[in-house]
Design brief:
It holds the Pfam family GrpB. It comes from Clostridium collagenovorans DSM 3089. One of its GO terms (molecular function) is transferase activity. Keywords: Transferase. With 179 residues, this protein is an alpha+beta fold. The chain has one domain: Beta Polymerase, domain 2 (2-Layer Sandwich). It has 5 helices and 5 strands, in the order αββαβββααα.
Amino acid sequence: MTNNNLRVVEVVEYNPNWHIEFKEEAHKLRDILKDEIVEIHHIGSTSIPNMSAKPVIDILLEVRDINAIDYYNEKIQQIGYIPKGEYGIRNRRFFLKGENDRTHHIHAFETGDTEIKRHLNFRDYMINHPEEAEEYKNLKKDLAYKFKYDIDKYIEGKDAFIKNIDLKAKQEFTEGFMK
């Protein structure tokens, strides 16, 4: 008997259509949020070429006023998203499309929030360092196999690796701007 309320951790091979899916959602979000949006970024593993990933498109919205995003919850719900408020990260607005069978996440941050740069640095670092991207890919596959029915353990298992890459990326991109 299957439990439809169980979120299964599945890491799949890279899909080049993820970029197309991102662009389609970005277009819908621009139509809804219009002047609130500063920039829309594709982040997370689906934004990294050849990276295996959970098939969930992560979208980072850089917005003018984070509090103004709350006024758009109903319109964002109309295109299939569930508003979750800050959802554990201060000054963020988080939306998910699908509960246990998610297809997209939206992370909205106000311009200048350090989380924006952290996410972009991580993505760009992984693109520029294929050997570490390969290591991350293998870690995620192993964790997904080991914790197929425990998303919290899967996330916990990636934590140290991600923090290490965050530090390397911050250093690399900070030094790069100083040159």
